[in-house]
Model the fold of this input.
Amino acid sequence: MADLVTAGIDVGTGAVKAAIVCSTGVAKTTVLGTHRERLLRRDPGRVAELAYERACQAAGLTRKDVAYVASTGDGDAVAFRDGHFYGMTTHARGATFLLPGARSVADLGALHARVMVIDEQSRVRASRMTSQCASGTGQFIENIARYLGIRLEDVGPLSRSATRAEVCSGICAVLAETDVINMVSRGIPLSEIIRGIHESIAQRLAKLLRMVRAAGPVVLTGGLAADVGLSAEIERALDEDGGPKIEVAAHPLSVQAGALGAALWSAHRLRRLQARGPDAGYLSTPT
Amino acid sequence: MEAEAIVRRCEALYADLSLGSVREWKAAHPGRPAVGLLPVYVPREIVHAAGALPVSLLGGGDQIDIVKGDASFQSYICHLPRSMVELSLTGRLDALDGFVFPSTCDVIRNLSGIFQMTTRGKYIRYLDLPQAMDEGTGGAFYRRDLVALAAEIARLAGREAPGDEALAESIRRYDRNRRAIAALWAVRAGAPWLVALDETYLLMRAGAVLPVEAHTELVEAYTAAVAGRARKPEDRIRVVVVGAFCEQPPLGLLRTLERSGCYVVDDDLFLGARWVEGDVLALEEGRGSVAEESAAPVDGPKGGPHGPPGSDGGGDPYGALARAYIGKSLVASTRYQPDGRRGEDLVRRVRALKADGVVFAAPSFCDPALLDQPPLQKSLSEANIPFITFKYAENTGQFQSIREQAGTFSDSIKLWGEA
Done:
C-alpha cells in the first residue's frame, strides 16, 4: 500500500493543533510533525494557517506533499481544508492511535469536556458532555491560574504537591472563582486550592464516565490531558466512587489527539475515495 | 451585483419583521393592498393579478420574544402560530390589508379564526385546497374558489376581478420566477460549494416580501454571480433536508448543518415558493395554449370570471393554476396524496440528486411533517439510504445536539458508508 501523507487541524477555543502523519495502512502510521499554536485573541483562520505551516516545517514537508487536509473543531477557520470530521470522531481515533486498546475517551478542552465510549474501530458508541457552565474546562483553570499568579505548566505539579484539597464549588465557574478569592484571603496554600479545583472537575468527569458506562482504559485527550494534577484526581475520583476500576492514561501527544485523529481519518477517507476510482465523489470535483 | 451584496440585501429584508419593504411598495403604489399569505401554499399569481402585493408570512423566527402569542395556543402546538399572533398584536403586520390561510393543518385553520377576532376590519380568507386530486372534482372546486379569491382581493384594491389576460400575465411572471429558481437549484445540485444553504434560503425569503419581478431579477443576478465564484470544493456528504416546509428553522441551524460537513443539495424550506414544478403556462415558449396541455380540462366555470376560455388569448389561466395544483405540485406532506407515493418520490429525489442521505428536520409538534416521517423512513431504509432525524422550533437557539447529530452522520457516511 502506497504511503499517504495527510494532515489534521484541530481548531479549539484556546489553541489550534496541527498534525501531519504518514500512513501505509492502519497498522503502520508515523507522526511526521505536530504543532500547537495558542489563539491569544488572534483570528483563528490565521492561526490555523500558522499552525499548519509550522507542522509542515516540523515534518520537513511542504503543503504540496500533503494529500488531504481535514479540519476538526471549529473547521470553518480552515479555509484550505479538503474535509471536516466531527470532534468526537477525531478524538476517538486519536485516542486509539495513542493508546491501542483504549475503550473510553475523556476529551478535556478549553470550553467543554466530553466523555465517550468507543469500540475497537474507534467508533463512538456513547457520549456525554459537560453542561454549558465553564467550571469543568481548561479555560476555567487558565483563569484561576492567572488570578493566583501561577504559570499554567506549574498547575499540575503544584496540585500534586498538596497533601489535601480545599473543597471548591463544582457547579458554577463564577461561584468557584468567588470560593477561590475567599480561600486566598483565608490563607489557604495555593497547592491546596488548585487541588480542590482539580478534585471538583475530576468528580464531575468521573460521574460522566460512569453515566456512559465507560470501561478502561480511559484516554485523556485535549489541552487538559497534560495537566498531571487533574489526571491524578480523575483516577482518585474513579477509585473512590465505588464503581468498577477504570485505568486512566494520558500520552505526551494527547493534546494533539483531535488533530491526529483528523489526519488519520483523512488517510482512511482518501483511500476509500481512491478505491472507488477517480470519478467518484470528491476526487472528481474541479479544484 | 456581487453575490455577497445580494445576500446582504436579502438578510436585511429577512430581519425586517415590520415589513418595511411592503410599506415602501404601498407608498409607491397608492391604493393597492398587500395581502399576507400563510404557509405552505397559496397561489401568489391570484393576488398579483388582483392588483395586490402577495406577502408570504413565515413566522417571527428567532427574532421575536413571544409574550402575547403564547396565550392563544396550548403548549403542544408548534411555534409558528404563536409568533404570527405576536407579530400581529404588536403591529408588525399593520402594513397588510388581508390574510389568506390555506388548509395546511388544523393549527393554521385555527389561526385564521384568531386573526378574524384580533384583526378586525381586515380581509381574512380561508383557502380550502382540494383533496380530490382529479381535475373534474378537486380541480373544478379549486378553480371556482380561485375565481372567488381573485374577485375578493380585487375588491380590496378597488378593482374589477382580474380577467384571463391579467391572470395569464401574472402567471407568466411567476413562471419566469420559477425558472430562475430552478436554474439556481441546478447550480446547487451541480456545484453546491458555490452556493451556501443560508444564502439560497435568504434569497428565497426575499421573495416573500418583494414583488415577483424584483425577486426574479435578484435570483437571476445571484445565480450569475455565484457561477464566477472561486470557491474550493470540499469533501462533504450531500444531503436532502425534509420536513421544514412551514415553520422555518433559524439561520443558525441551517449554517450548523453545512458546518457539520454536509452540502444541502435540496430542501423543502419555504416550499410554497417552489410549489409548482415547471411552468404553469407554456405560452411564452410557444408550446400552445393551456387548453392543449390537458386532454381533460378542468370542469367548472370557464374563461375566468368574464368569459369563455381562450377568449383573450390567455387560455384558461384559472384552470391552469388548478391543473398545476393537481398535477404539477411538489410532493409535500400538506398536500393530500391518495396513492402513497411520497416515499418513492423521496427515494427518487435522493437518487436523482446523488445525495448520500436525508436529514429529517421537522418543527416540534408539526403533525404533517412528523406523521409522514415513519413511512418516508421506511422507504429510505428499504432503499438503503441513511437518514437522521431531529426537531426544532423557529426560535431554537442551541445547536450543539444538531451539530453532533449532523457531524457524526456525515462522518459515518464518509468513513464507513457508501459515499
